[in-house]
Each structure stands twice: as structure tokens, then as C-alpha cells.
């Protein structure tokens, strides 16, 4: 296990660290001994990047940062630490400096945008009865129901938070596109991947929650990045 980097997994909007559950068990089975899944507050990009940096700074040795969805914006912002050796994007936002997830989505709106509902406290939710079709249409209904009921809503203002420095401009990166994504337009994913000139891009026939619906291929991809 000593030759493998530590893997830090960063979740996105409408989920928590447990969304990585299947990938965590698969990485462990493959000999990754240093696994971490940060629980970010989804209150602002500053807060979420700070929480991620704190976890990375506690790790002695090289780190591979893996972000799903909005977690991609977080690893883009927090990935400048010297022990971060690579960035893996799983159906994720990869903003450049001065860009926000919301601004990127406005260019090519995702199919499920109409299923997002704000509450009176400023948090943005996916309607529970629309969660399965929006976020995880390729998961069993029961699994999607649990995700819907336990969803972790972000403050809506977080969508507009700009990245200040894009770590993918300096660090090796890898990108997985979900071709049936309804939360980030697949063509937006392809555009973000292409401009970062990653070591490798793969496409999976999957919805937004590819980390849960395609844990095997996602783990393969993380393992390949770790070896690279």
C-alpha cells in the first residue's frame, strides 16, 4: 500500500461523503490504505475549500484529490497544496479562475434545472419526487429514494462563487464524463475536460451519480490516475 497515494474524495451538491460509499469499498479492496472522504458544509466555495485543505494538510505524503459534481470546483480551488499530485473529476465542475458553477451551467443549462427549488432560508433542493429522474436515473428506485430524503442542500449563493485559481492548470488531471447527466450538461463536461488538457478523459453511459451507479469503472479510473 505504501506506493499508493492517499485518496481524498470530495462530494458535491445534494449529497454527502457517503455518496462515495461504493467507491470507498472498492478502493480499499484494491489496496488503497489511506482513504478520506471530506464532509464539506456546502455553504460557500471558501468554506468548502478550506475544509478540504485542512484534511489534505493532515496527510503526510502525496494526495490524489477526487471531486464529484460541485466537488470538482472545490478540488480546483483547494488543489494547489504541494502534496496534491493530481486531480480527478467525476462528472464534475472544473471552473477556470473567475468562473463559477452557476455561470458555467447558464451557458448550457442541464435538463433537470426546473426540478431545483429554493427554500425560505436560501438553500436549494432537488424536489424529492424528481430526485431519481434528475440525479440518479440509473440507480434502483430505493437507492435514489434514500439519496433524495438524505440530500444535503447547498446554499444557493454557492453556485455563484468564483474560483480564484484553477489548480488543474498546474496539476495533472483526469476527467470522467457522464453521457446521460441531467445535472451538468454532458457537453459542458466535455468542454471543461477538453480545455484542461487532461491526462485522460473517459465517457460513461451514466447519470450524474456515476460514483454510485458505475463504481467499478469510476474506481478503475481513480486507480489509473493514482498510478499515473
From TrEMBL:
The segment(s) forming the AB hydrolase-1 domain are 7-218
- Gene Ontology molecular-function annotations: hydrolase activity
- What InterPro entries does its record include? AB_hydrolase_1, AB_hydrolase_fold, Sec-Metab_Biosynth_Hydrolase
Q: Does the keyword NAD apply?
A: no
Q: Which SUPFAM superfamilies match?
A: alpha/beta-Hydrolases
Q: What domain of life does the native source organism fall in? A: Bacteria
List all membrane-crossing ranges: none
Q: What is this protein called?
A: Alpha/beta hydrolase
What's the source species for this entry? Streptomyces yanii
Q: What is the lineage of its organism?
A: Bacteria, Bacillati, Actinomycetota, Actinomycetes, Kitasatosporales
